[in-house]
What we know:
GO terms for molecular function: ATP binding; tubulin binding; tubulin-glutamic acid ligase activity. By secondary structure, the chain is of the alpha+beta class. The chain contains 17 helices and 12 strands. Among the domains are: 61 residues, ATP-grasp fold, A domain (Dna Ligase, domain 1); 131 residues, no CATH class; 79 residues, no CATH class. Strands 5, 6, 7, 8, 9, 10, 11 and 12 form an 8-stranded antiparallel beta sheet that branches. Strands 1-4-2-3 form a 4-stranded antiparallel beta sheet. Helix 7 packs parallel to helix 12 and helix 11 packs antiparallel against helix 14. It is elongated and about 100 Å long.
Amino acid sequence: MVEICRKDFFTKHYNKQAKSDSRNYNFYPKTWILPQEYAAFLTYARKNPHPAYIVKPANGAMGMGIRLYRNVESVPSSSSQYGPCVVQEYVTNPYLIDGFKFDLRVYVLITSCCPLRIFVYNEGLVRLSAERYKDPMGPNGESMYRHLTNYAVNRKHHAYMKTNDETDGNKRSFAFLEDYLARHAGLSDCRMLWRRIRNLVVKTVILAAPHVYHGYRLFHHSEDYRCSSGTPSGSTTTTTTTSSETRFGGFNGRGGGSTHSAAFEILGFDVILDADLKPWLLEVNRSPSFGVDQSLDLRVKSGLLRDALALINIRASDKRRSEEWQRAHAVQRLLNPTTTALNAVCDTKLWQCSGTLKSKYLASDWLKNPRDLLNRINGIRERLGKMHREADLECFENSNCGNWRRVYPTMDKTLEQRYTTLMVNVFTEFNKGRPGDVDRVIPASLSESQKEEELRQQLYYLEKESAKLVKQRVNDKIPLPQQPKTQHQQHHRQQQQHHLRVLNTGASTPPTFPPRYCFREKWCSRNQSAVSMFSHPFWEDPNGLAESDEEGEEEVKKEEEEGSGGKEFLYRF
């Protein structure tokens, strides 16, 4: 998540979206990257004077290197000793608690990047400054202890107070904040405030979604490994996000499914409220501190870690299963031919008007490319399986989330549609005008349940077409769906055509076999494409002539003793 945790990267992404969608991206103070945008900053600041500006290192933390400037001309044009930096309009009208400036540390959990799943913890920290707030334009207004709320800065001040009372001291609870706003701001219901903060969190993470997914796909370039965690390197990736599809194999995540990984990422969002109680994002911390120095820290941080580990469903067998899956996947990748992309299910050229599939017109079309029919069937099955896995995952999350609350995907259809629009816009910008793989990042929403019946109907008719083609291929002696590319494949094609002739004419003359063969279902490494052809629904034995493995082996031995060729579906080793 470095794309939103580094201030210069986040500023670049945020400003780009704010230009085209200022209505949704209006929660971050106006910011410029130094030194690249120094001239633009001076031009804007001279036309639109602001009381104060704050300069922050682009990759800084714990308040290091932060400076406050009241004169725009005094802002340095070059990078500081901490490297590249940003200059930002200072929020001069913050809401105060007993005269002290404060910010909110909001904890965010990301359990998956493909599809994206975001949670916000219901508890957090209200962090107060060590000195009472003063206008930065006034006398003695430049003290950083009045303007910074970072624990690393204020703990050094003599007035910093540690206490086990969650309503006193420089660290307080969210419950105290709600009570304080009810008593002093007349805000008896804080749900709208928390809703704004949740929206801020989701919109911020959406900015990083295409970059994280890009790094994830680079690391896990195999389509089948869609569900494991990645550790992609570079400045545009995150090392702790993962897809959710295989972390929960069975219902409620406790079934027999495999768990390739259980990676996650916890972020710390620093949010400040202005005098109108509008939340503003200050920064996103990639590695928030989990150190404790008072009871509030212990309660909040231990609780969120415990609930996070329960939510991601870490099990002792995860590592072993992941290693076994990777070995099996490597073997499969080496032996299997490249599979056809499964997005063919979106092609509706063969569908008739009114969305009705008329089976009697399709057989001749599928005969031109029967492999396409199989790809479409597999694609619909995979899509239905994904919908079921996400439904099971949602059930697990609802019963094991503890104090975490899922904010994306959301149950609010209007809000879900708004987030989807933002996601498409961000991916389109990232892919230079094309939405790319945004559909893989957006989880199956509530509208998918309405499409399930349509998908099942499509699958029903396509399977009928498959059954019809099996019969047509046997009766009409239709040639194989693929032209073999090698001499070895050509040899097996002749054998399979001979098997088809046996079924149709009753011929008993056996073909000439190479030295090593195995039974039909045990075709291992000699020719994997032959396996796929024999297991293809078009080539199933329509008359039930093929015996089981054990029966086949016994028949081979009997043939060797009697000198008989036997049935054509039996091979010798």
